[in-house]
Amino acid sequence: MRPTLYLKLSCNQMHLSHLQSGRELHLQADLAFSNQRLLVADFAAAQQLLQRGIAELLPHRFLRLSRPPQLLIQPLERLEGGLSQVEERILLELGLGGGARKVRLHLGTELDSAGVIAKLRS
Asked: In the β-sheet with 70-75, what is the strand arrangement from edge to edge?
């Protein structure tokens, strides 16, 4: 089974959950990646933080390479008026650059494990 990750993204913070193990990480950015207008304004800083979190949750390099994770990203802030196509693209590329094979976005209420899996299957 492909590892399933759920990323809740806030200003300069990430909450990353591995559904299969139940492990969770709260990551605070050393370098700010958000600004007053954009949740991800510094792409490289956000990507580095996400890569660090994924490496910590899925520590076996072989496992990550043979079965890259699937990832659901839920932005929690800077959503006034919805996301533009550019913002959606930034978030999708963030997940792919972080090492995920399949990335989906979710706007709305926070999900439980079943909800995450359902969103990734749709």
From this structure: 24-28, 13-18, 4-10, 70-75, 102-105
